[in-house]
Every structure is written in C-alpha cells, then in structure tokens.
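Supplementary Text 2. Reproducibility record for the structural model of the 82-residue chain.

All settings were left at their defaults, and a single model was retained for analysis rather than an ensemble. We include the record here because the model underlies the residue-level annotations in Supplementary Table 4.
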Amino acid sequence: MVTVNATTPKPSILVEDLEGLMTPTQTAQRLRLSTVYLAKLDRLGRLPAIRTPLGRLYLPSEVERYAAQRAQQQRQRGGTTV
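Retained model, structure tokens:
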C-alpha cells in the first residue's frame, strides 16, 4: 500500500499499485474543481499526485482528506458546502 501526505516525498510505485488511484478528471469531478486548478494544488503540495507513466494519479484517501479540509474551511467562514 502506498501512503502520501503533503509532507512526504512522492513515492515510486509498481504497476499493480495503480489500481484504485484516481485520474485527474475523476479527482477534479469529485472535488468540483478544474483539472488546471488540481494541477496547481499538486504543484503547491496541497494535494500531491503520484507521477506514473499514465500521468498524474491521486490516492482516494488524499482526495477525501482534501475534501474534508476544504469543507471545514468553508464552514469556518460561514459558507455552505455542496
């Protein structure tokens, strides 16, 4: 199993480890973001992607962590989440 967070370096993984990872399109749809903004989050280290021969892929656990963090920030600002 591969674990990544914003403070750990991006690991190299085996092809069989790719199952269950999310594509940029899937991740952007889940978070209701553009793929361009998603790439920016990766560059900033806020939502790290794993680089593969297939392109960037995201761990579902990291996507859910980011979604929860974003929802909490919106609640703190008095906004609504969808």
